Amino acid sequence: MSQLRLRGTAGAILGVERPLTDMLIIGRSPEADLCIDHPTVCAQHAVVVRVGQSVIVSALAATGQVLVNEREARRSFLQPGDRVRVGSVELTLMGPGHHTFVEDDDETEEFAVAEAELVKRIDLGRPPAFHPRAAELLFQLTQILSRPLDEKPLIEAVLDLCLAGLRSDNAAMGIVDEQGGVTEVASRSRQTGRLPPPSGRLSRSLCAQLVSARVGLVVRDLWVDERFSAADSLVDASVRAVMGVPMIAAGEVVGVLVVTCYSPHTAFSEADLDLLTLLGAHLGLWLRARRVQRRQAEIIEQLERTQAHLMATTDRLVRAEQMVAAGRVATHAAHEVRNLLQPLSIVRILAERHPEDEDVMEITALIEQSRDRVLSVIRELQTSTKGEASSLCPEAMSLGELIDRTWQLLRHDALFRDVHLVFPDPGPEIRVHGDMGLLQQVLINLLRNAAQATGPGGTVRLRVGVAGQEACLEVEDDGPGVPVNLRERIFEPFFSTKGADGLGLGLDIARQTVRRHGGELRLVDGVGPGAAFRLSLPRG
């Protein structure tokens, strides 16, 4: 007859022999045939069954470990001399036998027959403990996890549920960090008047056992349990009974859930442990889902920052390339324009010959101002395309003066012959400091754009005002306006709504000039359907 000799590494069963005639259930439950009080052993951990002349050992718990000859096996045949280890107990099969070791996935007929008998006998065995409030508490847990709460309030609600359902005095939850340590994230206590200190809610040794063993643990009296020394933080905090489970999600221990009592008479049962394991499993899945969501959000945010940086870098490179090309064109244009303007110096000779003719003097002054303005525009274009800035020659002026002097340059322009120009009403002077020539060029650009947009018979309005510490000058036309999809691009270099008639540099250079004065040039919503541009400068 086959015999199992039970050899315990510690305890009262050391050296005890026990015959195997039918079936032997091994576990931590007091109802098991062989009760092993060890943190790595589940309530119903493993079973050894004799079927005819065959002996089979099978793991019953999903997380329980069974070693056959120091090799993990979920289910296998035994032959004489084979050693089976469960927790701290080692079992050695003694007696006749003829079967060799069979792997879990071998499909022999004899193994199938023996397995069927094993399943039949296990099904007739003792059912696992079931907590009477399990369904109610799991339903409440589902409701809690579905609430739109932050992480800590939600975990505290789950701990309150553990306190109510498991007759415990304290409950705490810890998160496993990257180094394998456990950090407490939340704790709750009944109104007992003696909440243990942080070190007494999650014992370091207890957490280490839960994480390494990956199974739940029940200690009914810490003060007499050999696994906990008198210096343990739980004992220090006058805790007598403790129950803890690892929270496992996707095969990874993500945290621990622990409840404690001050009285050993409030003994935790196997049903309590099963319930806490279920609560911990649900909470572990929720925590893992939260981690995945946070990680996804971090990745998305990082991708968005990278994309924005890439787009900004691309824009700078494109602008630099465009500016280089524009610089070459500007240099060539400057040379040609200076040659073409050279003959205009003859007007000064005419003025000197006819000093008494007011018309000649006026036209001469206008031509010279226009020539100087063209040369100024060429210089500004050259410096802008090189990424440089020409020096400013600031002077005090009023917005009214800026408008009047600009109009003197434009009043003979054929573009304004059929355009009605509405000037602002006279009022208190609004004074600014700036380079008159450069600001005139900005205003000329805005007025010419407005006249081209409104066309013959159209109207261009100028308005001045004050907004806080800024002086504002608006130019609005009654043309078709700027399409919504183009409003963001209107200031881009080389972008033009005029087709082949525009270079797309006017507004870009104008805005750069205004910003050099400490102001801003914006496209704003006007009164009518046309385009409106607001030039803002610091008052002074």
| Rounded average pLDDT | 77
End-to-end separation in angstroms reads: 111 Å
Radius of gyration: 45 Å
Q: Main beta sheet: strand number and arrangement?
A: 6 strands, antiparallel
Spans of at least 5 consecutive residues with low confidence: 97-107, 121-128, 193-200
Outline type: rod-shaped
- Give the beta-strand count: 23
Classify the oligomer. single chain
Instruction: Give the strand order of the largest sheet, numbering strands 1, 2, ... along the chain.
Output: 2-1-11-10-7-8
Specify the number of helices: 12
Helicity range of the residues?
Answer: 25-40%
Strand content: 15-25%
Instruction: Output the structural class.
Output: alpha+beta
Notes on the structure:
The protein has twelve helices and 23 strands. The chain has 540 residues and is of the alpha+beta class. The radius of gyration is 45 Å and the shape is rod-shaped. Residues 97-107, 121-128 and 193-200 have low confidence and may be disordered. Strand 7 and strand 8 form a beta hairpin. The strands form five sheets. A six-stranded antiparallel beta sheet has the order 2-1-11-10-7-8, with no helix packed on it. The protein has a five-stranded mixed beta sheet with strand order 4-3-5-6-9, with helices on one face. Helix 2 (134-145) packs antiparallel against helix 3 and helix 8 packs antiparallel against helix 9.
